[in-house]
Automatic annotation (TrEMBL):
GO terms for molecular function: ATP binding; double-stranded RNA binding; L-threonylcarbamoyladenylate synthase; tRNA binding. This is Threonylcarbamoyl-AMP synthase. It is found in: Cytoplasm. Belongs to the SUA5 family. It comes from Allosediminivita pacifica. One of its GO terms (cellular component) is cytoplasm. It comes from the Bacteria. GO terms for biological process: regulation of translational fidelity; tRNA processing.
Amino acid sequence: MTQTETSSLAPDAEGLARAAEILRGGGLVAFPTETVYGLGADACNDRAVAAIYEAKGRPSFNPLIAHFPSAEAAQAYVQWSDAADMVAAAFWPGPLTLVLPLRAGCGISRLVTAGLETLAVRVPAAPLARDLLERVGGPVAAPSANRSGQISPTRPEHVLAGLSGRIDAVVNAGRCDVGLESTILGLAGRPTLMRPGGIPREALEKALGRRVAERREAEAIAAPGQMASHYAPRAGMRLNAAEWQPGETRLGFGKVDCDLNLSRAGDLTEAAANLFEYLHRLDAEGAEVIAVSPVPHVGLGVAINDRLSRAAAPRD
Ligand code: TXA
Ligand code: MG
Protein backbone atom coordinates (compact mmCIF):
# COMPACT_ATOMS: atom_id res chain seq x y z
CA MET A 1 0.00 0.00 0.00
CA THR A 2 1.06 3.62 -0.47
CA GLN A 3 2.77 5.36 2.42
CA THR A 4 1.17 8.54 3.73
CA GLU A 5 2.39 10.87 6.41
CA THR A 6 0.30 10.34 9.56
CA SER A 7 -0.44 13.64 11.27
CA SER A 8 -0.94 13.96 14.99
CA LEU A 9 -3.98 16.13 15.79
CA ALA A 10 -4.54 17.97 19.07
CA PRO A 11 -7.69 17.00 21.05
CA ASP A 12 -9.12 20.51 20.69
CA ALA A 13 -11.72 22.19 18.44
CA GLU A 14 -9.21 22.79 15.67
CA GLY A 15 -7.87 19.23 15.75
CA LEU A 16 -11.37 17.73 15.77
CA ALA A 17 -12.50 19.99 12.91
CA ARG A 18 -9.54 18.74 10.88
CA ALA A 19 -10.25 15.11 11.85
CA ALA A 20 -13.89 15.47 10.76
CA GLU A 21 -12.81 17.06 7.47
CA ILE A 22 -10.43 14.16 6.73
CA LEU A 23 -13.16 11.61 7.56
CA ARG A 24 -15.78 13.36 5.39
CA GLY A 25 -13.20 13.39 2.59
CA GLY A 26 -12.80 9.62 2.74
CA GLY A 27 -9.61 9.49 4.84
CA LEU A 28 -8.65 7.38 7.87
CA VAL A 29 -8.39 8.91 11.36
CA ALA A 30 -7.64 7.08 14.60
CA PHE A 31 -9.51 8.56 17.56
CA PRO A 32 -9.94 7.66 21.24
CA THR A 33 -13.13 6.19 22.68
CA GLU A 34 -13.42 5.27 26.37
CA THR A 35 -12.62 1.63 25.46
CA VAL A 36 -9.72 1.69 22.97
CA TYR A 37 -8.58 3.84 20.03
CA GLY A 38 -10.70 3.25 16.93
CA LEU A 39 -9.60 3.56 13.31
CA GLY A 40 -12.39 5.63 11.77
CA ALA A 41 -13.69 6.00 8.22
CA ASP A 42 -16.94 7.23 6.64
CA ALA A 43 -19.16 4.14 6.95
CA CYS A 44 -21.11 5.04 3.82
CA ASN A 45 -18.02 5.32 1.61
CA ASP A 46 -16.91 1.96 0.16
CA ARG A 47 -13.42 3.15 -0.69
CA ALA A 48 -12.85 4.64 2.75
CA VAL A 49 -14.03 1.44 4.44
CA ALA A 50 -11.88 -0.67 2.13
CA ALA A 51 -8.92 1.45 3.20
CA ILE A 52 -9.53 0.42 6.85
CA TYR A 53 -9.25 -3.25 5.92
CA GLU A 54 -6.09 -2.53 3.96
CA ALA A 55 -4.40 -0.43 6.67
CA LYS A 56 -5.14 -3.06 9.33
CA GLY A 57 -4.44 -6.06 7.12
CA ARG A 58 -7.84 -7.31 8.30
CA PRO A 59 -9.58 -10.38 6.81
CA SER A 60 -12.36 -8.95 4.69
CA PHE A 61 -15.02 -11.16 6.28
CA ASN A 62 -14.71 -9.48 9.65
CA PRO A 63 -17.47 -6.84 9.99
CA LEU A 64 -17.00 -3.42 11.61
CA ILE A 65 -18.86 -1.40 14.26
CA ALA A 66 -20.61 1.81 13.15
CA HIS A 67 -20.27 4.66 15.67
CA PHE A 68 -22.85 7.38 16.29
CA PRO A 69 -23.10 10.44 18.56
CA SER A 70 -26.54 9.41 19.88
CA ALA A 71 -29.06 6.56 19.91
CA GLU A 72 -31.37 8.64 17.68
CA ALA A 73 -28.65 8.85 15.05
CA ALA A 74 -28.08 5.07 15.20
CA GLN A 75 -31.78 4.30 14.82
CA ALA A 76 -31.80 5.47 11.22
CA TYR A 77 -29.50 2.57 10.27
CA VAL A 78 -30.98 -0.43 12.12
CA GLN A 79 -34.33 -1.96 12.98
CA TRP A 80 -34.72 -0.75 16.56
CA SER A 81 -36.57 -2.75 19.22
CA ASP A 82 -37.85 -2.54 22.80
CA ALA A 83 -34.90 -4.63 23.97
CA ALA A 84 -32.51 -2.21 22.24
CA ASP A 85 -34.29 0.66 24.00
CA MET A 86 -33.82 -0.94 27.41
CA VAL A 87 -30.10 -1.54 27.11
CA ALA A 88 -29.44 1.73 25.29
CA ALA A 89 -31.26 3.63 28.07
CA ALA A 90 -29.10 1.86 30.66
CA PHE A 91 -25.68 1.86 28.96
CA TRP A 92 -25.46 4.41 26.15
CA PRO A 93 -23.35 6.34 25.76
CA GLY A 94 -20.90 3.69 26.89
CA PRO A 95 -18.86 0.53 26.21
CA LEU A 96 -21.73 -1.45 24.66
CA THR A 97 -22.24 -2.45 21.00
CA LEU A 98 -25.62 -3.70 19.78
CA VAL A 99 -26.00 -6.00 16.77
CA LEU A 100 -29.40 -5.34 15.18
CA PRO A 101 -31.05 -6.07 11.83
CA LEU A 102 -29.78 -3.67 9.17
CA ARG A 103 -32.29 -1.13 7.87
CA ALA A 104 -32.63 -1.64 4.14
CA GLY A 105 -31.46 1.24 1.95
CA CYS A 106 -29.80 3.12 4.83
CA GLY A 107 -26.66 3.72 2.81
CA ILE A 108 -24.12 1.83 4.95
CA SER A 109 -21.32 0.32 2.88
CA ARG A 110 -21.66 -3.45 2.48
CA LEU A 111 -18.01 -3.64 3.47
CA VAL A 112 -18.97 -2.54 7.00
CA THR A 113 -21.33 -5.48 7.52
CA ALA A 114 -19.14 -7.82 5.45
CA GLY A 115 -22.33 -8.92 3.72
CA LEU A 116 -24.31 -9.74 6.92
CA GLU A 117 -27.93 -8.61 7.30
CA THR A 118 -27.10 -7.14 10.71
CA LEU A 119 -25.20 -4.01 11.73
CA ALA A 120 -23.18 -3.45 14.91
CA VAL A 121 -23.87 0.02 16.35
CA ARG A 122 -22.32 1.87 19.26
CA VAL A 123 -22.56 5.28 20.94
CA PRO A 124 -19.26 5.84 22.78
CA ALA A 125 -19.16 7.80 26.04
CA ALA A 126 -15.85 9.64 25.58
CA PRO A 127 -16.85 13.32 25.04
CA LEU A 128 -14.13 13.77 22.46
CA ALA A 129 -15.40 10.84 20.38
CA ARG A 130 -18.96 12.13 20.51
CA ASP A 131 -17.83 15.64 19.56
CA LEU A 132 -15.99 14.20 16.56
CA LEU A 133 -18.97 12.04 15.55
CA GLU A 134 -21.29 15.09 15.75
CA ARG A 135 -18.94 17.00 13.50
CA VAL A 136 -18.77 14.21 10.92
CA GLY A 137 -22.57 14.06 10.82
CA GLY A 138 -22.78 10.46 9.58
CA PRO A 139 -21.84 6.97 10.78
CA VAL A 140 -18.15 6.28 11.35
CA ALA A 141 -16.95 2.70 10.96
CA ALA A 142 -14.17 2.01 13.43
CA PRO A 143 -12.41 -1.20 14.39
CA SER A 144 -9.70 -1.01 17.02
CA ALA A 145 -6.75 0.96 15.60
CA ASN A 146 -4.20 -1.87 15.53
CA ARG A 147 -2.85 -4.19 12.87
CA SER A 148 -5.16 -7.19 12.59
CA GLY A 149 -4.54 -9.81 15.28
CA GLN A 150 -2.36 -7.56 17.43
CA ILE A 151 -3.00 -5.91 20.78
CA SER A 152 -5.65 -3.16 20.82
CA PRO A 153 -4.30 0.37 21.40
CA THR A 154 -5.13 2.31 24.57
CA ARG A 155 -2.70 5.18 23.84
CA PRO A 156 -1.87 7.18 20.68
CA GLU A 157 1.69 5.79 20.80
CA HIS A 158 0.30 2.27 20.38
CA VAL A 159 -1.67 3.41 17.31
CA LEU A 160 1.42 4.95 15.73
CA ALA A 161 3.58 1.91 16.50
CA GLY A 162 1.28 -0.20 14.31
CA LEU A 163 -0.21 2.17 11.77
CA SER A 164 2.14 5.12 11.27
CA GLY A 165 2.43 5.80 7.53
CA ARG A 166 -0.72 3.77 6.82
CA ILE A 167 -3.40 6.20 8.05
CA ASP A 168 -3.99 9.95 7.62
CA ALA A 169 -4.12 11.08 11.24
CA VAL A 170 -4.45 10.21 14.92
CA VAL A 171 -6.23 12.38 17.49
CA ASN A 172 -3.69 12.55 20.26
CA ALA A 173 -5.66 12.37 23.49
CA GLY A 174 -3.82 10.16 25.95
CA ARG A 175 -5.02 6.99 27.58
CA CYS A 176 -8.45 5.33 27.28
CA ASP A 177 -10.32 4.88 30.59
CA VAL A 178 -11.88 1.42 30.20
CA GLY A 179 -9.01 -0.14 28.26
CA LEU A 180 -10.99 -3.15 26.92
CA GLU A 181 -13.25 -3.21 23.87
CA SER A 182 -17.02 -2.84 24.19
CA THR A 183 -19.31 -5.68 25.14
CA ILE A 184 -21.14 -6.91 22.01
CA LEU A 185 -24.78 -7.86 22.55
CA GLY A 186 -26.61 -9.56 19.69
CA LEU A 187 -30.26 -8.49 19.55
CA ALA A 188 -31.16 -9.68 16.05
CA GLY A 189 -32.53 -12.90 17.60
CA ARG A 190 -32.65 -13.84 21.26
CA PRO A 191 -30.24 -11.73 23.32
CA THR A 192 -26.75 -13.20 22.94
CA LEU A 193 -23.41 -12.11 24.33
CA MET A 194 -21.16 -12.04 21.25
CA ARG A 195 -18.07 -10.60 22.96
CA PRO A 196 -17.51 -10.02 26.68
CA GLY A 197 -16.28 -6.49 27.33
CA GLY A 198 -16.60 -3.29 29.32
CA ILE A 199 -20.11 -4.16 30.56
CA PRO A 200 -20.55 -7.50 32.36
CA ARG A 201 -23.30 -9.88 31.25
CA GLU A 202 -25.06 -9.73 34.62
CA ALA A 203 -25.61 -5.98 34.15
CA LEU A 204 -27.16 -6.56 30.71
CA GLU A 205 -29.49 -9.22 32.09
CA LYS A 206 -30.61 -6.84 34.80
CA ALA A 207 -31.42 -4.07 32.30
CA LEU A 208 -33.20 -6.46 29.92
CA GLY A 209 -35.06 -8.38 32.60
CA ARG A 210 -34.17 -11.62 30.80
CA ARG A 211 -31.35 -14.04 30.27
CA VAL A 212 -28.54 -13.28 27.84
CA ALA A 213 -27.28 -16.43 26.10
CA GLU A 214 -23.60 -17.20 25.62
CA ARG A 215 -22.47 -16.94 22.03
CA ARG A 216 -23.03 -20.27 20.28
CA GLU A 217 -20.14 -21.66 18.27
CA ALA A 218 -22.02 -21.17 14.97
CA GLU A 219 -22.13 -17.47 15.70
CA ALA A 220 -18.38 -17.29 16.05
CA ILE A 221 -18.28 -16.91 12.30
CA ALA A 222 -20.50 -13.84 12.57
CA ALA A 223 -18.01 -12.31 15.02
CA PRO A 224 -14.58 -13.37 13.84
CA GLY A 225 -13.00 -11.00 16.37
CA GLN A 226 -13.67 -14.07 18.47
CA MET A 227 -11.27 -16.25 16.47
CA ALA A 228 -8.65 -18.03 18.53
CA SER A 229 -5.44 -16.01 18.13
CA HIS A 230 -6.20 -12.31 18.57
CA TYR A 231 -4.85 -9.50 20.71
CA ALA A 232 -1.52 -11.28 20.43
CA PRO A 233 1.73 -9.87 21.81
CA ARG A 234 5.04 -11.05 20.31
CA ALA A 235 5.91 -12.72 23.60
CA GLY A 236 4.64 -16.16 24.53
CA MET A 237 1.96 -16.24 27.22
CA ARG A 238 1.37 -18.59 30.16
CA LEU A 239 -1.93 -18.08 31.98
CA ASN A 240 -3.17 -18.85 35.51
CA ALA A 241 0.40 -19.01 36.74
CA ALA A 242 0.30 -19.98 40.41
CA GLU A 243 4.08 -19.70 40.65
CA TRP A 244 6.76 -18.21 38.43
CA GLN A 245 9.36 -20.03 36.36
CA PRO A 246 12.88 -18.81 35.60
CA GLY A 247 13.13 -16.48 32.60
CA GLU A 248 9.48 -15.49 32.64
CA THR A 249 8.26 -11.94 32.89
CA ARG A 250 5.74 -11.93 35.72
CA LEU A 251 2.45 -10.09 35.22
CA GLY A 252 0.58 -10.23 38.51
CA PHE A 253 -2.90 -9.60 39.82
CA GLY A 254 -3.51 -8.91 43.51
CA LYS A 255 -0.96 -9.23 46.28
CA VAL A 256 1.77 -11.18 44.51
CA ASP A 257 5.45 -10.59 43.97
CA CYS A 258 5.84 -9.81 40.23
CA ASP A 259 7.43 -7.54 37.59
CA LEU A 260 4.27 -5.61 36.76
CA ASN A 261 0.89 -5.78 38.50
CA LEU A 262 -2.46 -5.39 36.71
CA SER A 263 -3.99 -4.35 40.03
CA ARG A 264 -2.30 -4.80 43.37
CA ALA A 265 -5.62 -4.07 45.08
CA GLY A 266 -7.26 -6.88 43.06
CA ASP A 267 -9.57 -4.36 41.34
CA LEU A 268 -10.90 -5.71 38.02
CA THR A 269 -11.69 -2.26 36.59
CA GLU A 270 -8.12 -1.16 37.18
CA ALA A 271 -6.80 -4.44 35.74
CA ALA A 272 -8.91 -4.03 32.57
CA ALA A 273 -7.62 -0.51 32.05
CA ASN A 274 -4.01 -1.70 32.43
CA LEU A 275 -4.16 -4.98 30.48
CA PHE A 276 -3.41 -3.92 26.89
CA GLU A 277 -1.08 -1.16 28.00
CA TYR A 278 1.04 -3.61 30.01
CA LEU A 279 1.09 -6.16 27.18
CA HIS A 280 2.30 -3.42 24.82
CA ARG A 281 4.94 -2.38 27.35
CA LEU A 282 6.26 -5.89 28.05
CA ASP A 283 6.40 -6.58 24.31
CA ALA A 284 8.36 -3.38 23.72
CA GLU A 285 10.77 -4.44 26.48
CA GLY A 286 11.37 -7.72 24.64
CA ALA A 287 9.74 -10.14 27.11
CA GLU A 288 10.00 -13.74 25.89
CA VAL A 289 7.28 -15.36 27.96
CA ILE A 290 4.72 -13.43 29.97
CA ALA A 291 3.31 -15.46 32.87
CA VAL A 292 0.04 -14.09 34.23
CA SER A 293 -1.53 -14.61 37.66
CA PRO A 294 -5.07 -16.04 37.78
CA VAL A 295 -7.76 -13.36 37.34
CA PRO A 296 -11.16 -14.09 38.97
CA HIS A 297 -13.74 -15.07 36.34
CA VAL A 298 -16.50 -12.69 37.47
CA GLY A 299 -17.78 -9.36 36.11
CA LEU A 300 -15.07 -7.62 34.07
CA GLY A 301 -12.78 -10.57 34.84
CA VAL A 302 -14.67 -12.55 32.16
CA ALA A 303 -13.62 -10.03 29.49
CA ILE A 304 -10.05 -9.88 30.84
CA ASN A 305 -9.76 -13.70 30.73
CA ASP A 306 -11.24 -13.71 27.20
CA ARG A 307 -8.53 -11.34 25.94
CA LEU A 308 -5.80 -13.22 27.85
CA SER A 309 -6.78 -16.59 26.41
CA ARG A 310 -6.80 -15.15 22.88
CA ALA A 311 -3.41 -13.56 23.48
CA ALA A 312 -2.15 -16.99 24.57
CA ALA A 313 -3.77 -19.00 21.74
CA PRO A 314 -1.59 -20.78 19.18
CA ARG A 315 -0.71 -18.46 16.27
CA ASP A 316 -0.24 -19.15 12.62
O1 TXA B 1 -14.72 -0.88 21.95
C1 TXA B 1 -14.88 -1.21 20.79
O2 TXA B 1 -15.82 -1.94 20.40
C2 TXA B 1 -13.86 -0.71 19.77
C3 TXA B 1 -14.03 0.81 19.67
C4 TXA B 1 -13.14 1.43 18.65
O3 TXA B 1 -15.38 1.13 19.41
N1 TXA B 1 -14.03 -1.33 18.51
C5 TXA B 1 -13.72 -2.62 18.26
O4 TXA B 1 -13.88 -3.00 16.95
O5 TXA B 1 -13.34 -3.36 19.12
P1 TXA B 1 -13.26 -4.35 16.36
O6 TXA B 1 -13.45 -4.24 14.89
O7 TXA B 1 -11.89 -4.55 16.83
O8 TXA B 1 -14.23 -5.44 16.87
C6 TXA B 1 -15.54 -5.49 16.35
C7 TXA B 1 -16.15 -6.82 16.61
C8 TXA B 1 -15.54 -7.92 15.76
O9 TXA B 1 -15.34 -9.05 16.57
C9 TXA B 1 -16.63 -8.19 14.72
O10 TXA B 1 -16.60 -9.50 14.27
C10 TXA B 1 -17.89 -7.85 15.51
O11 TXA B 1 -17.52 -6.73 16.25
N2 TXA B 1 -19.01 -7.46 14.65
C11 TXA B 1 -19.15 -6.36 13.91
N3 TXA B 1 -20.30 -6.36 13.23
C12 TXA B 1 -20.94 -7.50 13.55
C13 TXA B 1 -22.17 -8.09 13.18
N4 TXA B 1 -22.99 -7.52 12.31
N5 TXA B 1 -22.49 -9.27 13.72
C14 TXA B 1 -21.66 -9.86 14.61
N6 TXA B 1 -20.48 -9.36 15.00
C15 TXA B 1 -20.11 -8.19 14.49
MG1 MG C 1 -9.98 -5.35 17.43
